[in-house]
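Minutes, project huddle
Topic: does the predicted pose make sense with zinc ion bound?
PN asked that the exact inputs be recorded in the minutes so nobody has to dig through chat later. Recorded below.
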Amino acid sequence: MADRDWFEVQRLPHAVTMIREPHHSEDVKSYLVEGEEDVAVIDTGTGAGDFAGLVAALTSRRPRLLQTHAHWDHIGASCRFEDVLVHRTEAEALRAGLTAERYHDVFWRDPFDNARVPSKFDTRSGIPGAEPNSWLEHGDRIDLGGRELEVFHTPGHSPGSVTFLDRRARALFSGDLLYLGAMYVFFPSSDPAAFRASLQLVASLADAFDAVYPSHGPSPLEAGHVLTIHDAFEDVWQGRLPDRLGSLYGLPIVVFDFGSFAFLLPPDRLSVAAEG
Ligand SMILES: [Zn+2]
Ligand SMILES: [Zn+2]
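Predicted holo structure (tokens), as shared on screen:
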């Protein structure tokens, strides 16, 4: 399968481009946000296909890589960029990349249409680490020329997850903080209390955006989805009973299922959440 068939490119309003990897079970989305001078590259996908080459073909502007966080499915091509920004608590994971063994496990974990994977792709190379050259901090404004992305530190899914707000385009880029699907808050590095605070923060900004561009699930979402997800997690926090127990990546989880989305939490945090 040729590289170009791995990605699906969608031009969206306000010079936003969505780059999907629809043939992998993660269905991860990366985004380009074009200013007059620079283009923000929000994450780099799973590493299959020539992501950096695709970006160069889509825009002639100077790329600035802004990592929402450093999980494997967001850093696949990060080593191919020179200007790399990430929250400092994700730097170690970004530098480390992913070993061939782990990459093999996570990339091929779920069944999907293997025939569509680019023929030259091989998880045995692992994901090379990338060296950040600047930090993303809460309150930063990334100036792309004629438009700015405002940085919000929104931990919970991971310690250094960030969300970007484009006030002029009225768009929010939410990374893995929220989307329609199973939201992961069960990793050892996840923090349900921080996740709750982050949902409260983005819900408080809902007047400032109309479109939400998440990293997984359907995109774009509407501002109302943020409020719905926020309210649902408040229910969980107030002691809603879980819908089922399970395990994922070898870790025990409890699942709070709201139909179009779910929260996956670690069992040991349940009592903490119920106590408020
Ligand atoms: Zn993630
Ligand atoms: Zn992800």
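Observations noted during the meeting:
- The domain at 3-238 is CATH 3.60.15.10 (Metallo-beta-lactamase; Chain A).
- The helical segments are 51-58, 91-96, 100-107, 192-204, 223-237, 270-275.
No decisions taken; revisit at the next huddle.
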